[in-house]
Design brief:
Elements: E1 6-8, H1 11-14, E2 39-44, E3 47-48, E4 54-55, H2 57-64, H3 74-77, H4 103-115, E5 123-128, H5 132-135, E6 138-140, E7 154-156, H6 162-165, E8 170-172, E9 175-182, E10 191-192, E11 200-201, E12 206-209, E13 215-217, E14 224-229, H7 231-238, E15 245-248
Antiparallel strand pairs: 1-9, 2-14, 2-15, 3-4, 5-9, 5-12, 6-7, 8-9, 10-11, 12-13, 13-14
Length: 267
């Protein structure tokens, strides 16, 4: 990525410690964040109302007559049996993003992490290579006025050079990541530099410091971000008003059937 504060590195070497500490049943917290941390927290990605304003899951649950709790699932709190497309949702606004923590929430999280990190100047950021723009760039399609000749599509190159793309990747179960290193606040600079608007931000899908004193995961199929770390760190995350954060245990599940509180219509 052409940013002086970030450098693509050997991801296999930097993240060799992670996979041996992953485990648990399907959907478990410790399948995304390594085991062994004192405690863990879940940050629910913001949804939006019909005016585009961010809202918390608790706000939505109150609106739909559901109960907010640490293992809640979006489709359950909006009363939909469809955990992918949310057909029949009781919420008129938009759902939370999967695999991407909104920039203002990421900024708030990074401020908390910086206050609890011995070496915030040395952090690692993993981006899932399945985002189309990472390896192959972006195809941009332009709309033409009715009756006018079609405008040609434009292909914008990958955000990474061919040399950067040849570096070894971090290979974790079912996911492969390109890994960068830099200052903790450089997490805010990751994204598609060839997007339609010039830059589309993407939060790191995995992130940790050299000291390994915490670990952050935004799994591409989850609409939440998970953090493992010290009890002091997790308490600070829970106390940050910008973050819709909930305490979770290592074996808690974020799978689609994990919400045992809110009933959904049967198929």
């Amino acid at each position: 990525m052409p940013l002086p504060e970030l450098a693509v590195i050997d991801g296999a070497a930097a993240g060799a410690w992670i996979e041996p500490r992953l485990g648990g049943e399907f959907g478990a917290v410790t399948l995304q964040v390594p085991g062994g941390y004192e405690t863990y927290v879940r940050i629910c990605h913001p949804a939006h109302d019909t005016s585009g304003n961010p809202v918390t899951w608790s706000d939505v649950a109150q609106e739909t007559g559901r109960k907010a709790h640490p293992s809640m699932q979006w489709h359950a709190i909006v009363g939909s049996e469809d955990y992918l497309n949310f057909r029949g949702s009781l919420w008129p606004g938009s759902p939370p993003a999967r695999g991407n923590l909104a920039p203002e929430r990421l900024d708030a999280l990074c401020r908390v992490l910086a206050s609890q990190t011995r070496e915030p100047a040395h952090c690692f950021f993993g981006l899932w290579v399945g985002w189309g723009w990472v390896e192959t760039g972006t195809d941009v399609f332009f709309l033409s006025p009715v009756g006018s000749p079609p405008r040609p599509e434009e292909h914008r190159p990958s955000s990474f050079s061919s040399e950067e793309l040849r570096r070894r990747r971090l290979d974790l179960p079912h996911r492969e990541y390109i890994v960068l290193t830099g200052l903790l606040n450089a997490a805010m600079r990751l994204g598609n530099t060839g997007g339609i608007g010039g830059f589309d931000p993407q939060s790191p899908n995995v992130m940790w410091p050299t000291s390994q004193e915490w670990f952050v995961a935004s799994e591409i199929d989850f609409d939440s971000t998970l953090v493992g770390g010290s009890s002091e760190l997790i308490a600070a995350v829970l106390d940050t008003p910008e973050l819709d954060a909930w305490p979770v245990r290592p074996d808690d599940s974020l799978a689609c059937d994990a919400d045992n509180v809110n009933e959904v219509p049967s198929r």
